[in-house]
Amino acid sequence: MTDYLREIQLINFKNFDNFEAQFSQINCFVGRNGVGKTNILEAIHYLAMCKPYFYHNYEEDNIRFEENFFAIHGHYGSDEAGFNKFSCSLKSGEKKRFRSNDTPYSRLSEHIGIMPIVVVSPSDHVIISGGGDNQRTFINYTLSQCDKEYLEAVKDYTKTLEIRNKILKNAQYERTLDNNQLDGIDYLMALYGNKIRKKRHELCDELSQSVKHYYEILSSNMETADLKYETFEADDMLPILQTNLSRDLSIGYTTAGVHKDKLIFTINGKNVRNFGSQGQQKSYLLSLKLAQFDYICRQQNGRKPILLLDDIFDKFDFRRVCQLLNLISCEDFGQIFITDTHLNRIEEAFAHSEGSLSQDINKKMQILLLE
Ligand SMILES: Nc1ncnc2c1ncn2[C@@H]1O[C@H](COP(=O)(O)OP(=O)(O)OP(=O)(O)O)[C@@H](O)[C@H]1O
Ligand SMILES: [Mg+2]
Quick check: pTM over 0.70? Predict the structure, then answer.
């Protein structure tokens, strides 16, 4: 197997006081509603991305009720190269800490990409139904795991955008504008913006191919899915900023740039957001996530991301889940974590899926019952 999470320990994390588990290639958490299945996926996500994915609450809310800290420890690596211990902890009122083999990271961003991850969750529907910010979050989440320069460019762009918006607001109130200062900021914003745009273009070209491929498999029909990156129409962002200056000054913020980028999702040329049925939207989202998986895997020189599949039966009917399990249990995928409420249903779905899984299912898969 590729790199994988061998074991995890949660201390005072959400509803767990002390939870330990060892993992296989395919791991299914099964238990009734509210038992803590998604919470375990959340802990795994913390170890990979240093932040939550499933619950957008205050991070201190992840500390078990009546306690004053949480800690997550995990061993990630491969049987050949050995394992590293990663730890994330948060004490009430203090800063979150992240350690690799008990040595603190100076910046959390140093860790991003070391433990690549892809998440499929019911909450992902906002990528299609929500505004451009959700799509940019998806893009940034993908690229940040593959490209440190991109991550830095986004941080720098965001900082300069804030400064530019402040200059515009000040100009509105004080009726004066420091043109030299604005020119300097525009130059920097365009520099970072052009870098970001180029990377996003490359990503979207690749995603588009994979989305077509996976949508065809998952929908078992002749529909063609596609994805388009929508950004400013010019090779350079600098003239865009300059052209829009008078409008920006009257509104008080920057109206054009990569902070307005969007993704357009289509099936047979029609926008999935406006015209897709619920089933089409779900299949599209899953295709998008599998395309994200392929992209990260290629960029990581074949290292396969961990795949978290929360509530798969929320997304699909039985036949579709079998198709999905069939797809992800082949050699192209690595370690997988699945949650479901019904033991019979998940066992039956695995029994129905064919391919490499059925040959040595017991070696590859374990069911962890939560009570
Ligand atoms: N800080 C906390 N301390 C203690 N318990 C918490 C804390 N935060 C959340 N919980 C508990 O965690 C439970 C939710 O866990 P989780 O979302 O993982 O459930 P689940 O097994 O995924 O359920 P479902 O099948 O409904 O998705 C709730 O019962 C909630 O009260
Ligand atoms: Mg859940």
Answer: yes
